Amino acid sequence: MGDWGQGAKNNTIGWGQAAKNNAIGWGEIYADSWAGDTDIIGISADFSYAAASYAQDGVNPTPTITGTSGGTFSATPAGLTLNSSTGEITLSSSAIASYTITYTVSGVSSNVPMGITAASFSNVYSMLFDGVNDSVDVPAVNLGTTGTYSFWMKKTTATSNGCPIGYNWTYGYVMLIINEKAYIRHGTSMTIYTGPTTGADTLRTTDWVHIALVRDTTTSFILYINGTNVFTGTITAGQAGVSTQIDRIGMESDGGYPFGGSIDEVAAWNTVLTATHVGEVYNSGSPNNLDTLSTAPAPLYWNRMGD
Fold first, then answer.
1. Looking at residue 239, what is its pLDDT?
2. What are 75-104's pLDDT values in tens digits?
3. pTM strictly above 0.70
4. If pLDDT is split at 50, 70 and 90, which confidence band does 208 have?
5. Which domains, ranges and CATH numbers included, belong to the chain?
6. Which candidate in 42, 67, 106, 221 could, as Cys together with 46 as Cys, close a disulfide (CB 3.0–4.6 Å)?
């Protein structure tokens, strides 16, 4: 009992007990003195996020812990998708509300307010085409002799065929999905991209796939699948000076090859998008807000397909 720290172990009502149990006051610094440890011990639950609120379509934030590590996170009220170990917030599945996030370590807690706001842009919705007679008319979008169009598609089955984007056959180039191949037609000629049967850029999938077709010169085009340049083709000489026009979504202009599956984010530019531009539109697999792109120009036509 000669050690004042030992007194903290045995004293049940005096200052030593306060040293053992007080988690936030002066007793905290001697919390372990009952074990003979007279070092000053500080426990802090300090943490912070980079912002006080986040939109549902933002990048999932993780807090910076400036206090003691190894604690757990919780939130009130219910509705916030929160990793209890790391504090990371999954924004897309968190409800719009004001929350209090609490970090607790060794009995010490601290709180920060957090707001979840509506997504500035929704990529939740799309349009489902039945593969029989569903289509959406497009009011005369002329891309000129150079330009770009892009869209997202999700086929009903891996073997479903059809024309996601329809053009007048007389003009420029058009894309069909037939037997898991991309048929790119320009005038009376057809170029076929068969693609791999496996891999990230396959057309044999019922997952969402991003397609971008860039007519980079009057005589050539580039096909991008999921942000990757997979094919370069040459346009028939007789069609080199012909403008490309979009006039239908979900089938050919004349009603042939109806597409079976979902289509989303149909956009067209009368300018040539670079690989960097296409990558920004693709946005690593999550459709980007085309009104707020940092590198790519604003589209001439953009149909959010239900958003």
1. 64
2. 999 999 999 999 999 988 888 889 999 999
3. no
4. confident
5. 4-35 (no CATH), 47-117 (2.60.40), 127-303 (2.60.120.200)
6. 67
Tokens of 45: 């639950």
Place of tokens 């905290």: 28
> Which residue in the block uniquely carries the two structure tokens 């001697």?
30
